[in-house]
User: Fold this.
Amino acid sequence: MQIEILKSKIHHAAVTEANLHYVGSITIDENLMEAAHLIENEKVHVLNMNNGERLETYVIKGKKDSGVICLNGPAARKMLVGDTVVILSYCSLDFQEAKNFKPWIVFPKADNKL
Assistant:
């Protein structure tokens, strides 16, 4: 049996940009991506701590050490610059393997740096 469990979490990052006229997605600083074991085009859930919005999108790699967290396309309407977000990704694992799996959890500083 396969189950979905938390793989990666960036906890309490600040939205630095919102670009409505972009194709869509979330741009994340490459340092944060590496720390959380996220890859470009991976599906993520983004939870807005300020207004309770939740959305599903995919990751675009942002400039390393930029601190960028940018909501692109329609997602830009759900999150404002300065909002605090939690970014989650999940993976499917065998039930027994999942019992021992430890997710990568990142707690960025106020400037979205490690």
Remarks:
- The mean pLDDT is 97.
- The longest helix spans residues 30-36.
- DSSP finds two helices and eight strands in the chain.
- The beta strands are 2-14, 17-19, 25-29, 43-48, 54-62, 69-72, 84-94, 104-106.
